[in-house]
Amino acid sequence: MATDLDATDRRILGVLQKDGRITNADLSERVNLSPSACHRRVQLLEEAGYIDGYVALLNTRRMGKPTTVFVEITLQSQAEDLLDAFEREVAKVPDILECHLMAGTADYLIKIMAEDTEDFARIHRQHLSRLPGVRQMQSSFALRTVVKTTAIAV
Q1: Structure pTM?
Q2: Is the per-residue pLDDT at 36 higher than 80?
Q3: What is the Cα–Cα distance from 34 to 122, expressed in whole angstroms?
Q4: What pLDDT, on a 0 to 100 scale, did the predictor assign at position 1?
Q5: Quick check: 121 and 127 in contact, CB under 8 A?
Q6: Exposed, middle or buried: residue 73 (CB in 10 Å: 0-12, 13-18, 19+)?
Q7: If you average pLDDT over residues 84-105, what whole number do you get?
């Protein structure tokens, strides 16, 4: 659990969240540890599951996908087999970045990055409209991103 983390572990995780490509030498300097002690700590954090992996975050505009769309989906029922079927199929849609089972008015909230409204219409037609058990869909287009981070508070 996060309570097992000491202040040094938290500093390491904070730095790695902002710069996953930092060298061990630079990281050890930033968190005030020797390089070998820092490397051991990072390995332990990885083994303990605090670090899921390392990725490159792509610029959505440069990749031609500047349009963020949030789709709320309500299913016909909450039957377990329908939820399982929906989740299996939604995981196969390459344009979906996130899908969350929700409490509230919608059953699922999906985040999609698209080229534009036409591209979203294609995604809707080819993928979303074919998902099993969908009773209702509500799509919202983000006008501007105010806050965007992948870093959680440590």
Answers
A1: 0.88
A2: yes
A3: 53
A4: 62
A5: no
A6: buried
A7: 97
